[in-house]
């Protein structure tokens, strides 16, 4: 009788074990990480990529170190919120211009086309 009870208990335990494991099937754990950035404005879609034509410029105008032809352009900001999520108002704006630079002068932008000696 004791042997039957032990056999019965062992059979029940072995039979229940796969059922308990089956109840966890289809479940899992997903861990995500990332960064939420706070931005005060967006750039108007027409201003994201701009090409600013300079036309024909004389060499003497370009040869003045530190001086160049001034060509105004605009970057329109839209959907601006002056209030920060953490309170207070935005105090400054940072704008970064990026592009391909000259190999031997990484402080100036590379010029597309046949022109040389300027950036």
UniProtKB/TrEMBL annotation:
Keywords: Fimbrium, Signal. GO terms for biological process: cell adhesion involved in single-species biofilm formation. Residues 31-119 form the Fimbrial-type adhesion domain. GO terms for cellular component: pilus. It comes from the Bacteria. Its main location: other. It is found in: Fimbrium. InterPro entries: Adhesion_dom_fimbrial, Adhesion_dom_fimbrial_sf, Adhesion_dom_sf, Bact_Fimbrial_Adh_Pro. Pfam families: Fimbrial. Residues 1-22 form the signal peptide. Belongs to the fimbrial protein family. This is Fimbrial protein.
